[in-house]
Amino acid sequence: MKNIAVTGGTDGVGRAVAIAALRRGHSVLVVGSSAAKGRALLDEAARNGVGDRLEFIAADLRLISENGRLLDELHDRFTRLDRLVLCAQRYRTVWATTSEGIEENFALTYLSRFILSYGARDLLVKGDDPAIVNVCGTGTPIGRVQWDNLRFTVRRSGFSALMQANRASDLLGVAFARHGGDQGVRFVLYNPDFVRTNLQRKLDQPWRTVALALVTVLGKPIGEGVRPLLDIMDRVPQESLSAFRGRHRIDMGSRVFSPGYDPTDARRLRSATDHMLAEQGRQDLRSS
Ligand SMILES: NC(=O)c1ccc[n+]([C@@H]2O[C@H](COP(=O)([O-])OP(=O)(O)OC[C@H]3O[C@@H](n4cnc5c(N)ncnc54)[C@H](OP(=O)(O)O)[C@@H]3O)[C@@H](O)[C@H]2O)c1
To answer: How many Å apart are CA 42 and CA 274, to the nearest integer?
Structure first.
């Protein structure tokens, strides 16, 4: 039996991962911001006779403080963690900041995943064949990190901020593999590629209409989108970092994709993130 934590496990891809893990006999902890969605999942698990292996924690992972609290809760509950699956997501194409002053896409798509990946590392190194699976938009070489404007307070473009957050999430994998994977914790970047979930419904207009049209034409049912991910979770590649778009392995060294996985950028972002956390008074959540 594995111990598996799934952020964003109350809906869409994360929910399907959580249910599949319960069916396979694992112990699962799910995180989401809505208590009602958590309750619904707990009820479904109870009806299926697996409720004793599921726990739900409500947390708004846009907030640094909430990620810190979640790490405390993980350490209270587990002595080892085998899989950390990062799915919590809500795209913002209108510029907005959290109550802690962090741009919202950066906060949820990247900073939360940074804090949880490094903060749970001590539990993961004790795990069985441990891995972090970052479910994200990897393999989409759009957008760039704006080094002089990481918080997007200078040019307030929600769409550029969203694209920056996606690039940052890839760089997290590269940085972690270099400064965390050495202890046997592998990092997988996985893009499920157009799956019919609630993600597109939550977009701001006009992107919602565009995304819903695209997903109606190109989108896969959730079960189909999650199947390759479940296979990867069962047999995690040996490399410290791997990236997939559905079943297809992304060649991170290729001319098209390599700029998005640049080790120098990854190191720079890790250091900038540690600095940002220190500025927020959370030295304890830095990567080292
Ligand atoms: N669907 C696609 O076509 C697609 C394509 C490419 C990549 N992806 C990636 O796949 C991952 C999963 O997406 P999905 O399609 O499954 O999305 P989804 O159906 O909208 O589910 C998102 C999950 O994140 C949780 N969440 C949202 N905001 C949160 C917050 N502030 N704090 C904690 N949890 C929060 C939601 O729960 P609450 O509502 O309770 O907060 C829900 O459980 C994402 O990382 C996304 O980037 C999806």
So the answer is: 36
Domains and CATH numbers, the chain: 3-285 (3.40.50.720)
The rounded distance, in Å, linking the Cα atoms of 260 and 145 is 10
- Residue 109 makes CB contacts below 8 A (sequence gap 6+) with 89, 136, 162, 165, 166, 168, 169
pLDDT (tens digit, 9 = 90+) per residue, 231-283?
A: 999 999 999 999 999 999 999 999 999 999 999 999 999 999 999 999 999 99
Please report the beta strands in the chain, taking only residues with DSSP state E, as ranges in sequence order: 3-7, 27-32, 54-58, 83-86, 131-135, 186-191, 241-245, 248-249
By the 8 A CB rule, do 241 and 181 touch?
yes
Residues whose beta carbon lies within 6 Å of some atom of ligand 1: 8, 10-14, 31-34, 37, 59-62, 87-90, 108, 135-137, 191-195, 197-199
Q: Give the distance from CA 19 to its chain's centroid.
A: 18
- Give residue 136 CA to ligand 1 midpoint distance, Å: 9
3-state secondary structure of 101: coil
* pTM reported for the whole predicted model: 0.97
Please report which helix (H) or strand (E) contains residue 174, including its range.
helix 158-179
CB 254: neighbour CB atoms within 10 A?
9
